[in-house]
């Protein structure tokens, strides 16, 4: 690759990061919000209460995951992977082709219920639900926070595609995408247990894909992460199912943040 295109690609990537920073800045959400970082679990429009899973909350998250998840997934998969089992595609006039699979709605229904309700309750009981100090945390009601969380997740996921198509490789794109995902958490959540879950999903989420890839559900078109290389399933093994993309980790991080925000919205409405 020539050095000049690489420099322009890097510049483009930092523009994407700057756009997300502006999207979550106080100037963007004012007059809807003001900056606040506090140790309390209280946010504007929220009641102070422990994070506890509820049936209605988990059900609502499962429905959102099954309906909204495939649309977000289609953004991600225009450049990263191909579905081999029960694929579905739609030509988005002027915007490429959206690709997903019939397998995705039930998988994301389970994922959103776990990431937005069940696991946050368990993590909060162990770590606590206080906010971290000195973060650019936006004081928003649950609905606006959830909307911004989903929108910023779409930006991060789209950025993963744009960086790769602009010539970045996985190790170059990974820190930029992680910085974007961390900014999303810092401005829209700010709780250590949510950060712990997002990091756990960033590491464990891609690994959970391996059994489904081994069964032939999908494969990555340009894998750059081979977690099973020690066991003989590296790039030279010919096992396409064992290759992942480094850029999926930040996407799992972002999805966890928006699932938690949606869970808080459902919890608030149940308690109202």
TrEMBL record:
Keyword Transmembrane in record: yes
Q: What sections of the protein cross the membrane?
A: 12-33, 107-127, 195-220, 240-262
Keyword Transmembrane helix set for record: yes
Q: Which UniProt keywords apply?
A: Membrane, Transmembrane, Transmembrane helix
Q: What is this protein called?
A: Ogt protein
- Native species: Symbiodinium pilosum (Dinoflagellate)
């Amino acid at each position: 690759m020539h050095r000049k295109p690489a420099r322009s690609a890097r510049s483009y990537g930092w523009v994407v990061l700057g756009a997300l920073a502006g999207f979550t800045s106080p100037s963007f959400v004012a007059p809807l919000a003001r900056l606040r970082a506090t140790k309390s679990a209280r946010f504007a429009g929220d009641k102070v209460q422990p994070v506890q899973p509820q049936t209605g909350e988990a059900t609502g998250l499962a429905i959102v995951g099954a309906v909204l998840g495939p649309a977000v997934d289609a953004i991600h998969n225009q450049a990263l992977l191909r579905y081999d089992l029960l694929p579905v595609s739609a030509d988005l006039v002027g915007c490429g082709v959206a690709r997903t699979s019939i397998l995705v709605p039930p998988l994301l229904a389970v994922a959103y219920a776990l990431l937005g309700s069940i696991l946050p309750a368990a993590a909060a009981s162990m770590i606590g639900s206080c906010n971290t100090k000195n973060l650019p945390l936006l004081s928003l009601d649950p609905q606006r926070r959830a909307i911004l969380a989903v929108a910023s997740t779409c930006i991060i996921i789209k950025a993963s595609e744009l960086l790769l198509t602009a010539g970045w490789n996985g190790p170059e794109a990974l820190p930029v995408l992680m910085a974007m995902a961390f900014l999303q958490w810092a401005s829209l959540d700010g709780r250590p247990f949510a950060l712990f879950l997002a990091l756990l999903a960033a590491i464990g989420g891609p690994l959970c894909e391996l059994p489904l890839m081994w069964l032939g559900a999908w494969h990555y078109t340009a894998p750059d992460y081979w977690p099973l290389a020690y066991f003989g399933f590296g790039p030279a093994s010919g096992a396409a199912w064992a290759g992942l993309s480094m850029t999926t980790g930040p996407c799992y991080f972002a999805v966890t943040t928006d699932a938690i925000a949606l869970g808080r919205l459902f919890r608030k409405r149940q308690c109202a």
